[in-house]
Amino acid sequence: MDNLLAQITGRKRVVLYSPKDALHLYLTGDKSEVLDIDSPDLELYPKFVKASRYECVLEPGDLLFIPALWFHNTLALQFGVGVNVFWRHLPPDSYDKKDPYGNKDPVAASRALQSLERTLGILEELPPDYRDFYARRMVLRIQSRAYLSQIMEVAQGNLDTA
């Protein structure tokens, strides 16, 4: 959900990453596998350096709007109190009724991810070369439906460097 972070006392560093960088953040659920964002293990997470980092330090009295889907990491620079206020902007049935804080994926996204896991399990029944072929076809299908603007940006970048 959208989030307003209010720093009451103390200082806190906040690092944000755009949803457009999701492919570089090594996300598992709503968490990144990269635990040390300041010194990431680039052998394990080589794409992490491609993610654009937005950073600020909150002082007492500061408010920071964190849009839904933005990955964020906080570090207390000194003892303090911060308050988060979340609000729902999708239709009510989009949210898991057992998730008052909105940390879970929207219901439709959760169902889609579960379907993907089942589909990947089904592909395991195929020999490796067939599994690879059909997985690549699936990736292309997903890219054509969900990442059109990103594909266009990449294509433009490739044309600019040619």
UniProtKB/TrEMBL annotation:
Stated name of the protein: JmjC domain-containing protein
Pfam family, one: Cupin_8
InterPro entries from the UniProt entry: Cupin_8, JmjC_dom
Residue intervals of the JmjC domain: 1-104
PROSITE patterns: JMJC
Gene3D superfamilies recorded: 6.10.140.1470, Cupin
